[in-house]
């Protein structure tokens, strides 16, 4: 093999890896869902089970009461619903405001020391009274039909967990618009995975599990909304589904600065999960191995393939075909950098490349932060 052949092989291998990660896998799982899909047998229960909503909060005195009231307004029998709030070492008035509600359906687990969300979930879920546990965050709001919608999925005995859909207002910036497009693709993938077999993970702002299937997770877990559903799927053989008809509404738009912090933490969690649960990639142990690899782990190596593809393209610049591709390459990154430098510019030829490059830069940042130990127990 000549040197040029080696560069060509590297170029097309890198291109194939990127194509599969961002387009090939969505097309494949979407096709499998249509051809071989097994929809969840969803129906409202004749005898509604007791549901416990578990919410972990740290210094949320300004929005904890409206959030709890929002949960209590669910179209669900009042005597079959409890809200269990775990305060993670809060130093403001969160606990006092919760206790002032004086509602028998609201329980407060006030922890004196801040230990992190995963530790709080490990403490709270076994104490939940409900057969089903709904997990959520303080910032979002549920529709009245969200909780009953989640519950209806559990009429299918094969189901162990179900994720609702996080609805975010359109971004206020061009980069955020590119990220919005990514989020739409992500929801399509989750819907398709859930219809075909199981969704990889859940949306932390709105998902539900069978309490009996919960297993404690490591206290430093960053992605509880992936690890908990994966444990249910891998260790108990139950399906994990995605229900777009069970929404949680986020009042914040996709702001690049806020998205940067959130995305780096999420991607650091993917590196952590790979280190903590390498056995999930073994085909003879985990039927979902290829979905996990395609959905989560191929994305964390995508920046490597972006670099190798560009380097190989530059090395082949003497050939007419690759010269044209290099020009296209350069145009793509010019548009991306323009979109990143001018976030107010809402022009799709800039915002889409900018969103793509932004997310891959966050992957690198997530790896660096994970290696540095930036996300330690108690920082969530």
Word description of this protein:
- The protein has 380 residues and is an alpha/beta fold.
- It has one domain (1-380): Spore Coat Polysaccharide Biosynthesis Protein SpsA, Chain A, CATH 3.90.550.
- It has 12 helices and 8 strands.
- The chain has helices at residues 3-36, 64-72, 94-100, 117-124, 146-152, 174-196, 224-236, 256-276, 289-300, 302-315, 320-341, 348-372; strands spanning 51-57, 81-88, 106-111, 132-136, 141-142, 159-168, 206-210, 239-250.
- Strands 3-2-1-4-7-6-8-5 form an 8-stranded mixed sheet, with helices on both faces.
- Strand 1, helix 2 (64-72) and strand 2 (81-88) form a beta-alpha-beta unit.
- Helix 11 crosses helix 12 (348-372).
- The protein is globular.
- The chain starts with a helix and ends in an 8-residue tail after the last helix.
């Amino acid at each position: 093999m000549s040197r040029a052949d080696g560069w060509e092989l590297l170029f097309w291998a890198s291109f194939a890896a990127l194509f599969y990660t961002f387009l090939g896998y969505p097309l494949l799982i979407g096709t499998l869902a249509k051809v071989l899909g097994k929809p969840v047998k969803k129906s409202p229960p004749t005898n509604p089970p007791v549901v416990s909503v578990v919410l972990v909060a740290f210094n949320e005195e300004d929005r904890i009461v409206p959030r709890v009231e929002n949960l209590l307004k669910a179209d669900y029998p009042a005597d079959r619903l409890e809200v269990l709030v775990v305060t993670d070492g809060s130093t403001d008035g969160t606990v006092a405001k919760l206790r002032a509600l004086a509602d028998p359906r609201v329980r407060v687990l006030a922890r004196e020391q801040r230990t992190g969300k995963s530790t709080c979930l490990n403490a709270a879920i076994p104490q939940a009274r409900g057969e089903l546990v709904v997990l959520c965050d303080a910032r979002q709001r549920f529709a009245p039909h969200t909780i009953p919608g989640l519950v209806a999925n559990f009429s299918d005995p094969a189901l162990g967990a179900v994720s609702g859909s996080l609805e975010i207002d359109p971004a206020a910036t061009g980069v955020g618009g590119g990220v919005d497009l990514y989020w739409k693709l992500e929801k399509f993938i989750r819907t398709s995975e859930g219809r075909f077999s199981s969704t990889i993970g859940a949306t932390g702002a709105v998902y539900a599990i069978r309490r009996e299937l919960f297993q404690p997770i490591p206290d430093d877990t960053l992605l509880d909304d992936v690890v908990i559903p994966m444990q249910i799927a891998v260790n108990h053989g139950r399906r994990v589904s995605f229900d777009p008809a069970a929404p949680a509404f986020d009042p914040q738009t996709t702001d690049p600065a806020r998205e940067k912090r959130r995305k780096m933490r999420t991607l650091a969690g993917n590196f952590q999960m790979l280190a903590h649960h390498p056995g999930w990639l073994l085909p003879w142990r985990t039927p979902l191995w290829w979905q996990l690899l395609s959905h989560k782990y191929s994305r964390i190596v995508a920046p490597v393939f972006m670099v190798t593809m560009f380097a190989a393209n530059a090395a082949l610049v003497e050939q007419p075909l690759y010269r044209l591709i290099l020009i296209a390459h350069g145009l793509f990154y010019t548009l991306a950098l323009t979109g990143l430098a001018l976030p107010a510019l809402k022009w799709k030829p800039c915002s889409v490349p900018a969103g793509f490059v932004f997310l891959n830069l966050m992957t690198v940042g997530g790896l660096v932060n994970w290696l540095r130990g930036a996300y330690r127990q108690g920082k969530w």
